[in-house]
Amino acid sequence: DTEVTQTPKHLVMGMTNKKSLKCEQHMGHRAMYWYKQKAKKPPELMFVYSYEKLSINESVPSRFSPECPNSSLLNLHLHALQPEDSALYLCASSPGGGRSEQYFGPGTRLTVT
Amino acid sequence: GQQLNQSPQSMFIQEGEDVSMNCTSSSIFNTWLWYKQDPGEGPVLLIALYKAGELTSNGRLTAQFGITRKDSFLNISASIPSDVGIYFCAGLNTNAGKSTFGDGTTLTVKP
Predict the structure, then answer these.
(1) Which of A43, A49, A29 is nearest to A98 (CA)?
(2) Is the predicted pLDDT of residue B45 greater than 90, yes or no?
């Protein structure tokens, strides 16, 4: 099983709203990632969690707040977003232990109004 | 930072034709990955390459890890309409913990 699940599939939120994106994997992977992707562009790395600890933050604005409650779950908390934050948000996981191929979820299409 | 040059940017081919795309970098990577992405979906891993010179196949897809560790190519043989999509390469070094993506190759297959 190489499945990463993400909820919700679509999200529309106002600039004053607070919402959360959720990601789950049951492959025993030790690293999890959040990416942002604009149309026809490659994914842009936002955060990396390794063994449930934040290891990389690519200078992401504080209105995006990641959380890793356990080794299978990854959340992205959103607050006071801007219209330019509208994008496809992708979660990925990788096995660790020398194997670094990343498996992506289907993404959450976020629209900020 | 590290950058990947992926080419071609787009391809328009007839069903049944073979396709080749490649990625080059000025930096060395110890892993090369190839993904396919359909509109509105997440990238799907096609092939992972871990050794310089490695040649790996997955059905009609074949990818190679360049001997210099600075490049990789992906070939698709006998293309079919469902091959349509955007193909991304990604290079990474395990210790760095993050991937560098190419800008993608958009493939259109005409029946």
Answers:
(1) A29
(2) yes
